[in-house]
From TrEMBL:
<protein>
    <submittedName>
        <fullName>Cobaltochelatase subunit CobN</fullName>
    </submittedName>
</protein>
<dbReference type="InterPro" id="IPR003672">
    <property type="entry name" value="CobN/Mg_chltase"/>
</dbReference>
<feature type="compositionally biased region" description="Polar residues">
    <location>
        <begin position="133"/>
        <end position="144"/>
    </location>
</feature>
<feature type="region of interest" description="Disordered">
    <location>
        <begin position="120"/>
        <end position="171"/>
    </location>
</feature>
<dbReference type="Pfam" id="PF02514">
    <property type="entry name" value="CobN-Mg_chel"/>
</dbReference>
<feature type="compositionally biased region" description="Polar residues">
    <location>
        <begin position="659"/>
        <end position="677"/>
    </location>
</feature>
<feature type="domain" description="CobN/magnesium chelatase">
    <location>
        <begin position="748"/>
        <end position="1169"/>
    </location>
</feature>
<feature type="region of interest" description="Disordered">
    <location>
        <begin position="659"/>
        <end position="678"/>
    </location>
</feature>
<feature type="domain" description="CobN/magnesium chelatase">
    <location>
        <begin position="239"/>
        <end position="741"/>
    </location>
</feature>
Length: 1193
């Protein structure tokens, strides 16, 4: 008989092994079915071309849209079958299981002609096989004169059976599957590719194309389920029991050796392993109840299957059992050899693996996404990575040990952040760390831990921030001195060589006496509060930042090794957002034991108290430092209000409005004045309040500006862990939440707001923290702001981001386009109606996660493209908007990414990259397509390929984070703007998207010369633009670099307050003015911070520091801001004395920063002002060094 030739396109992993096992039998007709023709299975990679004389094509899993289009074009009339999921406009006609191409405006013309050749009803075109064969694929005996089964159109929804049943369930319901049309049965058979199912799919394919009339019958039920006898001798008296969830397919095809190997590793740690295939919900209760930790080896959610995760049910299951789950990563389609290769600087996992193996399992609370194994490069079999498997088993052992250890014996390390010179020891985003530590210590003591609790928060602060520098609270206290020789013995020799290469020979130059390593912090019984050292040398960061192979310093490594080797902690806790451990060099995802975060964390259970509003960086802590996060609340919001000159101006405007009323006695005949010109008193008051002439000219504008200031929500104070909001404190958050409502009924809105109020007024953070300390499960939660994402409440849960393939959402696309339109309108208003040729946009992970991709959608809108969501909810492709529909020129986009965005959202970043590169190839007028025009110019200038010249996605190098600009500014380690620009260009000159970290410094320098505007979203009212240094680091950094590239001409700098319900765009100058008036100059905001003592003063210092940083990089901060800052913060003797008593180092830092601003000509002020500041600085310097007496003691 004539053989049926089937191409297995892109099969890998278990599917490839199954094909290998049955290929010979199919070719020799040894399949137990007489009359079935021989089948030749041809295994090809995605990059291979289809051979001639092929009868059908099978594909596996998710396709890249371009690959799918190429395959369909090459296949022509050959039927193509796939198991879901497939991508974008390449869909399964799910009633039949055949792939077809849908309409796509972005599809190249060549593909349009190929589409016509494809069958759209699951029917192969005539002429493909001899017409004597039955082309319907239905046995002749069952044909009553017409084709059986429903017809199909592209994009049709899956039939109910396919929606609700897993492949394994389908195997047990053969009659149901047998009633499906043949192509759908092929798709089902390909979902779990056991050898028998591969044979079944081959028989069905032969039936469908008319090569046989014999129906093979129901789907074989050969998928194993239930307990597995590993043959491993279990420990007699195990420390605990591990529930190992494994893939049934691997066991079915004989590829489960690694499962037994893992059970053997666990047994070596004195742990019993219960290996289960399939859903653990089916496990008998007496077995399930004895599980201490779940180890999920499937690389997916515990419940559900690939393509159909059941993370909500998984969360419910884990919550009921209160048992933690560790879900390490299998390299199903990659080899261990490739992953281990760390030259030149590993990326880790590819985007699809990040989504499937990390992001989706996180939705059910999974932790510890270390790689545990992968394919052998020679045999293709799954095998363990020995070192990683040992580390994972150790983490499980120590989690169970923690659970079983009596509380009074447990040793707990609490790590805080910050450094001495700036008065920022123990600072964290929106948290009063010392008050929180006091609450934690008190609660630990009452819960049975052996803890010595200081009487007050002030006493606790003094114990940690001591007088080692000479004066009160001048330096972090010394907790211990560890002999450098002992540290050297504890340090891995390979890691030691790496540190020595970066920082000099052990013991280094930071926190060492030469013979000893200095560990800072304080001990409170069985609890240590330690101060995380600096990444490197804070006084000279340039060497570290320019070195992409940098390592942590010896002092940093010594701190974490001391906690393990000397203190012997049973659990490690990081207190507040965020430290530097998770940003240490190494793979970005899928870390190995020699990557710095894994090496320094070790196997000890790791808990991280993380602010609820930062899912981006929280996700990095989970993925790179294997943290189990416990979220804490943001501070309450309140209106900024008006004060001083602003309040006076508001009164004058109100009086003018009253006098212009028709009811005013000053208005004759009941008329109303329409004069909007300000009175002289108003003009004088407005000038004192530092409004611009343009604003002063119209009282309506002044009214709007004052109302904007008054109603701006600002975070009042800092959060103390475990402290709920009062009913009054919830008011502004509830008002803000109401603005996000999408046309609810009155009852719906009332119920939602009442629920939000209840969540804000209840707080179980400490209870959740104690549960985590018991080695228990912390349920997951999507991160976000309380008002905008009420589902992020209650706090005390394990923060996660989103599945990157799901964004941008439809709402994000709509809002992104609206913001892009306003950005262009704002630019045109100040540039005589002309459009920007190019905009440098800053994309962060945090705002794109919280807005479901608005920032990415803005970039798509600017270039004139739209992301497209495929049939299974994946945003896998884009359409190009024709110029006539766009109605304007396209705008070139230079996307500069944070490391978090690069790591957490690789899929949409790659899609944006593909869209830009495609548009760069379009034949459109240069004035309407600057992307193509600039790419051609860059290609000519640098003598590179056009496709490379279209690179527009830039970030730091592999495993590296940040632009370095903030570090230079904070260390005063720069002389001119060129130094800042050069640091930015050096750090950010790496391509991402499709190029995965390639060195493209020359391209970055070239494209920045074309930039007319810089832009960034401000994601949070709680944090705002001067709340963290990253805004001036990224937006300020790129603005500085563009200014240099343009020969000193600064671009327009624009921002959007993306947390607001209405889309908006404003100039950076206006945003900084609003920021300063509502916070750093606002007595209401300042005094709310000062309630928190040392931490509150540090928060004030941080705002001033970041305001200085924005001025250093963008020159957009008004001179009056620094004038008033000096008056309000330092020349107000009462306020300054309060701050000096609480945190003299922070006050000294503020004073010196203002002096630096004047010295660098960033602030023009008087000699008298300089003299006063120098007097304060000299006095504080002496007090901090303990040289002279002072009234602040």
């Amino acid at each position: 008989m004539e053989p049926v030739r089937i191409v297995c396109w892109g099969f890998s992993g278990a599917g490839a092994l199954s094909i290998e096992q049955v290929s010979d039998d199919l070719a020799a007709q040894n399949t137990g079915q007489p009359g079935c023709p021989p089948v030749e299975l041809i295994h090809l990679d995605h990059s291979d071309d289809l051979p001639d004389n092929v009868d059908a094509v099978w594909i596996q899993g998710v396709l890249d849209p371009d690959e799918g289009r190429r395959l369909l074009a090459a296949a022509g009339e050959i039927p193509v079958f796939s198991s879901p999921p497939v991508t974008q406009d390449i869909q399964v006609a799910t009633s039949f299981g055949m792939m077809t191409a849908m309409d796509s405006p972005g599809m190249p013309p060549a593909m349009e002609t190929m589409r016509a050749k494809k069958s759209v009803a699951g029917m192969p075109p005539s002429g493909m096989r001899p017409k004597t064969r039955n082309q319907t694929g239905i046995p002749s005996s069952s044909m009553p004169g017409k084709t059986a089964g429903p017809s199909s159109t592209p994009g049709q929804s899956p039939p109910p059976a396919m929606k609700t049943m897993s492949a394994a369930q389908m195997g047990s319901k053969g009659n149901t599957v047998a009633r499906m049309p043949v192509p759908a049965r092929i798709a089902v058979a390909l979902m779990l590719m056991t050898p028998l199912r591969i044979i079944h799919a081959a028989r069905l394919t032969a039936l469908h194309i008319g090569a046989t009339d014999i129906d093979p019958g129901p789907l074989p039920d050969d998928v194993p389920h239930g307990l597995v006898d590993t043959g491993i001798e279990q420990p007699d008296r195990p420390l605990g029991t591990v529930g190992v969830i494994a893939m049934p397919l691997h066991e079915a095809i004989g590829d489960g050796g690694y499962i037994r190997d893992m059970a053997r590793v666990l047994a070596g740690k004195n742990l019993a392993a219960v290996v289960w295939l399939g859903s653990p919900a089916d496990m008998p209760d007496d077995v399930k109840d004895g599980i201490d930790v779940w180890l999920n080896l499937t690389g997916f959610t515990m419940l559900g299957h690939h393509g159909a995760p059941m993370y909500e049910q998984g969360t419910d299951f884990l919550t009921q059992t209160n048992t933690p789950v560790i879900t390490p990563v299998p390299l199903q389609r990659g080899t261990l050899a490739d992953w281990r290769d760390d030259d030149p600087g590993p990326v880790g996992l590819w985007p699809a693996a990040v989504s499937m193996n990390i992001a989706v399992p996180e939705l059910e609370g999974a932790t510890t996404p270390w790689v545990y194994g992968g394919r052998d490069a020679h045999t293709g079999a799954m095998c363990l990575d020995g070192e990683s498997a040992e580390r994972i088993a150790d983490r499980i052992r120590r989690t169970i040990t923690l659970k079983n250890t009596p509380k009074h014996q447990r040793k707990v390390s609490l790590t805080i952040f910050g450094w001495d010179g700036d008065g920022t020891i123990g600072t964290a985003a929106q948290m009063d760390v010392f008050a929180s530590l006091h609450r934690i210590l008190s609660r630990l003591k009452s819960d049975g831990y052996t803890v010595e609790v200081p009487a007050t928060v002030e006493e606790l602060t003094d114990m940690i921030v001591g007088s080692g520098g000479g004066g009160r609270r001048s330096e972090a206290s010394v907790l211990a001195r560890w002999r450098a020789a002992d540290y050297a013995r504890a340090l891995d020799t390979r890691q030691r060589a790496r540190i020595d290469s970066s920082w000099g020979l052990l013991p280094g130059a930071v926190d060492t006496t030469g013979g000893d390593m200095i560990i800072r912090g304080a001990r409170f019984g069985n609890v240590v509060v330690g101060c995380q050292p600096q990444f490197g040398d804070v006084d000279d960061p340039a060497e570290l930042l320019y070195n992409e192979d940098a390592t942590p310093s010896h002092s940093f490594a010594a701190y974490y090794l001391w906690l393990e080797e000397v203190f012997g902690h049973d659990v490690m806790v990081h207190v507040g957002t965020h430290g530097a451990l998770e940003f240490m060099p190494g793979r970005q995802t899928g870390l190995a034991t020699n990557d710095w975060p894994v090496y320094l964390c070790g196997s000890v259970p790791h808990i991280y108290l993380y602010v609820m509003a930062n899912p981006g960086e929280g996700t990095i802590a989970k993925r790179r430092a294997a943290a189990q996060t416990v979220t804490y609340l943001t501070p309450p919001l309140d209106d900024a209000g008006l004060y001083g000159d602003l309040e006076e101006l508001a009164g004058l405007l109100h009086e003018q409005l009253r006098q212009s009323s028709p009811f005013s006695p000053q208005q004759p005949n009941g008329t109303q004045s329409t004069n909007h010109r300000p009175t002289p008193d108003i003009v004088a008051a407005a000038k004192r309040a530092n409004f611009t002439d343009e604003q002063i000219a119209d009282t309506r504008v002044l009214h709007r500006e004052l109302e904007k200031i008054r109603r701006t929500p600002v975070a009042m104070g800092l959060h103390v862990i475990g402290e709920p909001m009062s009913r009054e404190q919830t008011r502004r958050s509830l008002e803000l939440a109401a603005t996000y409502a999408d046309d609810p009924t009155c009852q719906q809105a009332t119920d939602a707001l009442r629920e939000l109020e209840e969540k804000l007024q209840s707080n179980t953070e400490l209870e959740s923290f104690l549960n985590a300390l018991d080695g228990r499960y912390t349920p997951p939660v999507a991160g976000g702001d309380p008002a905008r994402q009420p589902d992020a409440l209650p706090t005390g849960r394990n923060i996660h981001a989103i599945d990157p393939v799901s964004i941008p959402t439809a709402t994000a696309i709509r809002r992104g386009k609206a913001t892009a339109d306003k950005l262009l309108a704002a630019y045109r208003d100040s540039h005589n109606g002309s459009y920007p040729s190019s905009v440098a946009v800053v994309l962060w992970g945090i705002d794109n996660i919280k807005t479901s991709g608005e920032g990415l959608a803005q970039a798509f809108a600017l270039i004139g493209a739209t992301p497209v969501r495929g049939p299974r909810g994946r945003v896998d492709d884009f359409t190009v908007i024709p110029l006539e529909e766009l109605g304007r020129p396209r705008v070139d986009v230079v996307a500069t990414l944070s490391g978090v965005c690069r790591d957490v959202l690789p899929h949409p970043v790659e899609l944006l990259d593909k869209a830009v590169r495609h548009i760069a190839t379009l034949d459109e007028p240069a004035e309407l397509n600057p992307i193509a025009h600039h790419a051609k110019a860059t290609a000519d200038q640098l003598d590179i390929a056009a496709v490379d010249a279209a690179t527009r996605i830039f970030s730091a190098g592999r495993g590296s984070y940040g632009t370095g600009v903030n570090r230079l500014v904070q260390a005063c380690d720069w002389e001119t703007d060129d130094d800042l620009a050069e640091m930015y260009l050096t750090r950010m000159g790496h391509a991402w998207g499709t190029r995965q970290g390639a060195d493209v410094h020359g391209i970055l320098r070239s494209v920045l010369t074309t930039v007319d505007a810089t832009f960034q979203n401000i994601d949070s009212a709680e944090t705002s633009i001067a709340g963290i240094d990253h805004y001036f680091e990224f937006l300020g950094g790129v603005t500085t670099a563009v200014t240099r590239a343009r020969g000193g001409s600064a671009p327009s700098s624009l921002v959007s307050q993306s947390w607001q319900a209405e889309t908006n765009v404003d100039t950076l100058e206006s945003a900084m003015a609003l920021e300063s008036r509502t916070r750093i100059l606002n007595p209401k905001w300042i005094d709310a911070q000062l309630v928190h003592g040392y931490a509150g003063v540090a928060a004030v210092r941080t705002r001033l520091e970041n305001t200085f940083g924005m001025q250093a990089t963008t020159k957009t901060v008004g001179n009056w801001v620094f004038d008033r800052a000096a008056d309000v913060l330092l020349f107000d003797d009462n306020r300054r004395s309060v701050m000096e008593r609480a945190n003299p180092a922070a006050v000294s830092s503020m004073t010196n920063r203002l002096l630096e601003a004047a010295e660098r000509n960033l602030w023009q002020t008087t000699g008298d002002t300089i003299d006063r500041l120098e007097d304060i600085a000299d006095r504080l310097d002496g007090a901090l060094e303990g040289i002279e007496p002072t009234d602040i003691m």
